[in-house]
Amino acid sequence: MVASAFTSSAVTGVAKVARVASGCAVVLPLVVAVEAVPMVLGVMGFTATGITSSSIAAKMMSAAAIANGGGVAPGSLVATLQSLGATGLSGLTRFILGSTGSAIAAGIARFY
Description:
This protein has helices at residues 2-44, 56-67, 77-87, 91-109; strands spanning 46-47, 50-51. It is mainly alpha-helical. Among the domains are: 9-44; 78-111.
């Protein structure tokens, strides 16, 4: 009886660890993605000093300016990405993205 109780609690413990590990496998990439946003924007050419010449950002800006009659519209994708590239993600934005991603990951992990 004692051995079966121990085995049952060990199996339950292993199942809990497996659930936590599967949740971490989903949450960890989300955390990395939130933290990688400034780096990815910099690689694209959206930097704190402006848009880098001959970059993806420069090509996007050129296309947006041509489509908009000579200027980049405030609130457009290019303007928003440049703002994020210049200032980075605020603490509140990181919190919201992290919380949302964690909630989604927790919902997904329930099915496994």
